[in-house]
Design brief:
The complex is a heterodimer of chains A (95) and B (758). Chain A is mostly beta strands and 95 residues long. Chain A has no helices and 8 strands. Chain A has one domain: Immunoglobulin-like (Sandwich). In chain B, a hairpin with a 4-residue loop joins strand 30 and strand 31.
């Protein structure tokens, strides 16, 4: 299945890794564009039951991403030093 | 593939008219009687940021702007709207027989924005001041504390300054008083702004009304061939979910931004952009849109300007999730372009909605206004307080407004999502956003994001802007103001203490090049600014100037760093300004005449003579490294003997010979400073001929300061080379010329002392 990770507010030159079952599936340095409130959209192909994590090595943060197949999209915001993830089935929009 | 360039397509007519301002419940056309301080201080009602608190519009009948009958014993306290933009009045200088029409300039421009009525008044007065010399700006915003209508169209508005940016000295003070009053008719005709301060003199500025809007802005809408047609209008009742009080009207981009305070107009230029501009993938990246903007926007320029390009495209590279973006954060001039994507989530109607077409149209219209708002530098409602590590920060400390009913909030972010949002959205910006758009320093808001600069014209400065402590004169210091064709025009500046008291002053103010400005205008043509070739940095040398005492300076006004300002026959106006730190002092206008050439040799030499290098060689008293310029000056001395131009040329050719002239030379792969051997005899022979064979003629063309300084240098050089008798002869000639030309006695005394010491 396809899981869309939307990195939204709060990123500023932050190195981000996406781990699928412990292996780095994607990584990037992200900065939120203030015009849209969006840093990046990353699409992962994952098997049902896979363990997906977001890692911010520079901040020592590792957060589990809900990937139970019930939601297509996950919104990720970096607020006050914490990653906040919000799964949804409605496509997040940016303006 | 070659893409079609701009074409002209007329505006589509509105299907339903927009409501006239005077009939709109949010428009305040009149003020009756006195407004108390509390009411005056509250801006724009509650504003749209607080849902559930209804605004109470006060509908008023239109009041005709016609002569009103004088009814005895019936005080009429009715004042029509005054909000808008004002500027410092231009006044023609007057002579004994009225305006004389001689063009002179104004070094300071002032724009006042009064915001107390019409749409969504913010109860503010902001003042923007720009000074040319030295270039400096100031911006203040004042909160209205009292707004009184004291009679038929007699308005008196007081405000306290709460925000300052830039050079405080340009507009010192703490309080403002704006007054508008009628003249012979019923309408306003007199406007003035007074600035008060506890420790600064009160200053009054007479203003002219410019516009009911705070700035002008132009929008150009283009579309990509495969995108839906642009949605530039929306009928407010076309979707049933709207505030009950919302007037039923068709609003457009212009309507929204006019109500925000801008005289918004739509460009008649519209282009259809081929999809090829988006590259092979058919979707648009930011840089592709930027390229399209450069190609298709009729107003594109790498300059800040009140103009914006709005593109309707099908889809961004980011995909369906991106409904629109202010894409232009590329290059030095940001916020000039914005786009809306018709194949994106903004077309997805909330499931179950009863009027999907209107829903979709409303969302596209809303998105376009939102993206355009970013181009005015507005952030999202939930980002208002945000600072970024890259230096982004709010212009004022702001609070986030995640529930705001604003064009700058996401409808789907608020509690209750779109339905809740549009149920009390009034198609406007919040008060905080309006305050920013209308009153923030304009470079914060203007598309292109650069410092505002107002080009000045030749205008009379308001005399009440100046303290009257000093008088500045510009004069030729010769009997007539006529110059020959190639003769460099040298003017003298005289600054006199007229205060009645001794005042401290930097004695180099007129000479160092850092504090003065000169403007030159040929006939009634373009005004050119003189830029000094020499600006001296030095410690401040304050001297006490007694009442009536003066300091002097001289400059060759013909020659500027931008080239020759006076290089053809005709009449020229010259005016000077001097930066006195707390004010700019302006001189009289000196009118000079440059006579046509009477010698064919002059015309032959003119192309080589009127060059930047020759002007430098003249100003620097010779420049041996500028070989061609020095050759030209040598030619002038030989082919035009006895002319004023040849006197200048001779002095410039000879001066480097008076001293060991240093040159930076390349030698054996490295740079070394080498000094040439002086040739005092040759220099003295040339300069004696130029300066002393006809002293009056030489003093006329060089001006007193330059002439007597040159004589002193020549005497020093002769003295240093052991030719004391020759040196004394030079000083004697100089003193005799001074006496015959009524030079100040203390200057003559100094020269006599020097002669004795030789």
């Amino acid at each position: 299945m396809i899981l869309e990770i939307h990195f939204q507010e709060g990123f500023s030159h932050d190195e981000v890794q996406l781990l699928v079952d412990g292996a780095v599936a994607d990584q990037a340095t992200l900065t939120t564009r203030l015009q849209t409130g969006l840093a990046a959209i990353r699409k992962l192909t994952v098997s049902p039951g896979a363990k997906v994590h977001i890692v911010l090595p520079g901040h020592g943060i590792k957060e589990t991403v809900p990937a139970d197949g019930a939601h297509r999209y996950v919104q990720v915001n970096f607020e006050n030093g914490n990653l906040v993830t919000t799964p949804t089935n409605q496509i997040p929009g940016y303006l | 593939m070659i893409m079609a360039k701009k074409n002209n397509t007329p505006e589509m007519p509105a299907t339903t008219p927009v409501m006239p301002d005077e009939q709109h419940p949010d428009y305040q056309a009149y003020t009756y009687g006195d407004d108390d301080a509390e009411a005056a201080a509250q801006a724009g009602g509650a504003g749209p940021g607080i849902p559930g608190v209804p605004q109470i519009p006060i509908p008023m009948e239109p009041f005709p702007d016609l002569p009103f009958p004088n009814l005895p014993n019936l005080p009429l306290k009715i004042c029509s709207a005054v909000s808008g933009r004002y500027k410092l009045r231009n006044v023609l200088p007057t002579g004994p027989n009225g305006p004389i029409g001689v063009p002179i300039f104004n070094l300071t421009s002032i724009t006042v924005r009064v915001d107390v009525d019409r749409f969504y008044p913010q109860k503010r007065i902001s003042v923007q001041v720009s000074r040319v010399l030295p270039r400096s700006t100031a911006h203040i915003i004042a909160d209205v504390t009292s707004d009184k209508c004291t009679g038929l169209n007699r308005r008196r508005i007081e405000a306290v300054i709460s925000y300052r940016e830039g050079n405080n000295a340009l507009i010192p003070g703490e309080r403002l008083l704006f007054e508008a009053s009628r003249g012979l008719g019923a309408g306003y005709s007199n406007y003035k702004l007074t600035v008060f301060g506890s420790a600064t003199p009160t200053k009054t500025y007479v203003l002219d009304f410019v516009s009911q809007y705070f700035d002008d802005v132009e929008f150009e809408v283009d579309k990509v061939a495969n995108a839906d047609d642009p949605t530039t209008e929306y009928q407010t009742h076309s979707h049933p979910n709207h505030p009950a009080s919302l007037p039923n009207e068709t609003i457009s981009f212009e309507t929204v931004y006019k109500r925000a305070g801008f005289n918004a107009t739509m460009s008649p230029n519209r282009s259809e952009i081929p999809i090829s501009g988006a590259g092979a993938n058919g979707t648009w990246s930011d840089s592709e849109m930027h390229n399209a903007m450069v190609t298709y926007w009729s107003r594109f320029s790498n300059l800040p300007q009140w103009a914006l390009w709005v593109l309707f495209a099908r889809q961004h590279d980011e995909g369906y999730s991106l409904g629109g973006i202010m894409f232009d954060d590329i290059g030095p001039n940001h916020r000039q372009g914005t786009s809306i994507f018709t194949e994106s989530f903004i077309k997805d109607v909330t499931p179950g909605d009863t009027n999907p077409d209107a829903w979709r149209k409303r969302m596209v219209f809303w998105t376009a206004v939102h993206e355009m708002g970013h181009a005015f530098n507005l952030a999202h409602s939930w980002q208002k307080a945000m600072s970024t590590p890259d230096g982004g920060h709010p212009w004022l400390p702001l609070v986030n407004q995640p529930e705001a009913r604003s064009f700058m909030n996401y409808p789907f972010f608020v509690s209750g999502k779109e339905r809740a949002f549009f149920s009390n959205f009034e198609f406007r910006f919040t008060n905080e956003e309006l305050l920013f758009m209308r009153h923030a320093p304009r470079r914060f808001v203007q598309m292109g994001n650069e410092n505002w600069f107002s080009n000045h014209g030749f205008e009379e400065p308001r005399q009440d802007m100046f303290s009257g402590r000093f008088k500045l004169e510009v004069r030729p210091n010769r009997e007539n103001n006529t110059y020959s064709f190639l003769e460099p025009v040298s003017i003298e500046l005289k600054l006199t203490n007229t205060s009645g008291l001794p005042l401290a002053l930097d004695e180099h103010l007129l000479q160092d090049g850092g504090h003065i400005i000169l403007f030159v205008q040929k006939d009634s043509g373009t005004v050119k600014k003189w830029q000094p070739m020499i600006v001296r940095c030095h410690d401040e040398h304050k001297k006490m100037l007694a009442d009536g005492e003066s300091i002097y300076g001289t400059h060759i006004v013909s020659a500027s760093t931008s080239g020759w300002l006076i290089d053809e026959p005709g009449f020229y106006n010259i005016q000077a300004g001097v930066d006195m730190v707390d004010e700019v002092l302006l001189s009289n206008v000196l009118r000079v005449f440059v006579a046509p050439s009477t010698n064919p040799e002059e015309n032959k030499l003119a192309p080589d003579y009127f060059t930047e290098d020759v002007s430098r060689a003249l100003v620097f008293d010779g420049a041996p490294a500028l070989y061609k310029a020095m050759d030209t000056l040598q030619e002038v001395t030989e082919r035009l003997p006895g002319t004023a131009a040849s006197l200048h040329a001779t002095k410039a050719v000879a001066a480097p010979l008076l001293k060991p002239y240093k040159k930076l030379e390349q030698k054996d792969g490295s740079l070394v400073v080498e000094a040439s051997k002086p040739d005092i005899d040759k220099a003295a022979q040339l300069q004696t001929a130029a300066l002393m064979s006809s002293p009056d003629k030489a003093a006329d063309t060089f001006g007193h300061i330059d002439y007597f300084k040159s004589m002193e240098k020549l005497a020093d050089a002769l003295n240093d080379s052991g030719q004391k008798a020759e040196a004394k002869k030079v000083m004697s000639s100089s003193i005799a010329t001074m006496k015959s030309r009524d030079v100040l006695s203390e200057v003559i005394q100094q020269a006599e002392n020097k002669a004795k010491a030789l």
